[in-house]
């Protein structure tokens, strides 16, 4: 028997596993590396975050990813080269993190690697009728991570979700449900990444009512315009630029004038739609092309907050009431957080640290949970409910040799 397969069987039967979750999100700020200890599986899962680091990307890495990122047309050569290069880079960054933590690769059971989304194409967005299905593409091939680290690697989690009829995202729902459900309160797990999304976890613990949805832009538009208007910054530091401006009602209205906001939940989106071209078209339509930089950023901040609010109202009526636990980089932007809180006055706000998981680590942790389910679980069933995707095990398995 292939010794790696024997090792896989052994892993599946162990009472606990050490799994490194890797996430490289739409903000391209770096690679999140979360070393987790997972006991059990399914609703009995117990997670301990042992170590966490965000390894910042160099300008060179960002530039290479941006050459293909969210672009409908790219060089096929570039895409091919980047896929292998990013896989090796992610593997190397895992080794460097382990070295700095004083942990040897042999002490890790598996890597759960999300890779880098370069194009997300739900059917409602691509509208290519000759392809009547959803699609999404993540780079950083798992074989390269496995060979570089010597650790069994699970990767490319989103394809199975698409194959089972989903949009390939948000996958947060499965981990959120297993880790953060509580019978004491209705919870909204709000992640403010490049794209914002939330997971609803009812106090009833009814799996059929649980769902996760993208709601619109989080930081992606803010980051893009800050980079253009203030080249020395990559994001609006503590929301200061937006706080110095005034939101423009006409532009906000034009930004919200898209079928995505009325589409049924759950739904997904990405920077393929919400990008500077989208904003400029809205500025043209609303005759607001001459807006000052701070007024533009104030409006984009309100736009993100309003997208979240509309999705919450769509799900729960005009006055949503829940305990909101924030995560993702946008929670460090007080102007954005104030705009969200103002619109959802009946919600109570805190962050996932209060649930035992550092907010910046949450997405990487969730991929470790997905890998744990694939290795040792029996499948998180949500297909009968609002999420409308049958239970599937996600992630392809790469052996190190
Ligand atoms: N102090 C801060 N002030 C304002 N914004 C901040 C601050 N710190 C982080 N951010 C925002 O958070 C972003 C990074 O967020 P995060 O790492 O959650 O994104 P991501 O994981 O790439 O996104 P996604 O979840 O969409 O894949 C930064 O680009 C910036 O917009
Ligand atoms: C296609 C893709 O990579 N989507 C990401 C992105 O970043 C945030 C939002 O858009 C979410 O839908 C998803 O990531 C998280 C981790 C998810 O799947 O839950």
TrEMBL record:
Keywords: ATP-binding, Carbohydrate metabolism, Kinase, Nucleotide-binding, Transferase. This is Anhydro-N-acetylmuramic acid kinase. ATP binds at residues 25-32. Catalyzes the specific phosphorylation of 1,6-anhydro-N-acetylmuramic acid (anhMurNAc) with the simultaneous cleavage of the 1,6-anhydro ring, generating MurNAc-6-P. Is required for the utilization of anhMurNAc either imported from the medium or derived from its own cell wall murein, and thus plays a role in cell wall recycling. Transmembrane segments: none annotated. GO terms for molecular function: ATP binding; kinase activity; phosphotransferase activity, alcohol group as acceptor. Its EC number is 2.7.1.170. GO terms for biological process: 1,6-anhydro-N-acetyl-beta-muramic acid catabolic process; amino sugar metabolic process; peptidoglycan turnover. SUPFAM superfamilies: Actin-like ATPase domain. The gene is anmK. It is an enzyme of class 2 (transferase). The lineage of its organism: Bacteria, Pseudomonadati, Bacteroidota, Cytophagia, Cytophagales. It catalyses: 1,6-anhydro-N-acetyl-beta-muramate + ATP + H2O = N-acetyl-D-muramate 6-phosphate + ADP + H(+). Belongs to the anhydro-N-acetylmuramic acid kinase family. The keyword Zinc does not apply. Pathway: Amino-sugar metabolism; 1,6-anhydro-N-acetylmuramate degradation; Cell wall biogenesis; peptidoglycan recycling.
């Amino acid at each position: 028997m292939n010794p790696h397969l024997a090792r896989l069987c052994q892993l599946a039967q162990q009472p606990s596993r050490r799994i490194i979750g890797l996430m490289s999100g739409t903000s391209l700020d770096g690679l999140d590396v979360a070393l987790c200890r997972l006991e059990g599986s399914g609703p009995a899962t117990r997670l301990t975050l042992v170590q966490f680091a965000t390894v910042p990307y160099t300008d060179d890495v960002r530039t290479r990813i941006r050459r293909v990122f969210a672009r409908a047309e790219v060089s096929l050569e570039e895409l091919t080269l980047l896929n292998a290069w990013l896989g090796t880079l992610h593997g190397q960054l895992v080794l460097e993190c382990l070295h700095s933590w004083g942990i040897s690769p042999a002490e890790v059971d598996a890597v759960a690697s999300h890779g880098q989304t370069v194009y997300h194409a739900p059917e409602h967005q691509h509208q290519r009728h000759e392809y009547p299905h959803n699609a999404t593409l993540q780079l950083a091939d798992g074989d390269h991570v496995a060979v570089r680290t010597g650790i069994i690697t699970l990767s490319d989690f989103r394809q199975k979700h698409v194959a089972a009829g989903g949009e390939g995202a948000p996958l947060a729902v499965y981990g959120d449900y297993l880790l953060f459900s509580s019978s004491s309160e209705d919870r909204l797990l709000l992640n403010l990444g490049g794209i914002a999304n939330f997971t609803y976890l009812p106090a009833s613990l009814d799996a059929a009512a649980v769902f996760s949805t993208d709601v619109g832009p989080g930081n992606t538009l803010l980051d893009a315009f800050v980079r253009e208007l203030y080249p020395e910054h990559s994001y609006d530091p503590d929301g200061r630029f937006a706080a110095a401006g005034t939101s423009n009602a006409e532009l906000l209205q034009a930004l919200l004038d898209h079928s995505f906001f009325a589409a049924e939940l759950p739904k997904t989106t990405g920077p393929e739609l919400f990008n500077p071209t989208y904003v400029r078209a809205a500025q043209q339509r609303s005759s607001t092309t001459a807006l000052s930089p701070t007024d533009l950023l104030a409006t984009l901040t309100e736009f993100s907050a309003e997208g979240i609010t509309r999705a919450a109202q769509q799900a729960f009526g005009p006055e949503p009431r829940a305990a909101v636990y924030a995560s993702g980089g946008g929670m460090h932007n007080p102007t954005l957080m104030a705009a969200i809180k103002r619109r959802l006055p009946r919600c109570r706000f805190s962050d996932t640290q209060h649930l035992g998981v550092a907010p910046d680590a949450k997405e990487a942790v969730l991929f470790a949970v997905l890998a744990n389910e694939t290795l040792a679980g029996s499948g998180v069933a949500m297909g009968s409910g609002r999420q409308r995707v049958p239970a599937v095990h996600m992630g392809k398995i790469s052996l190190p040799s």
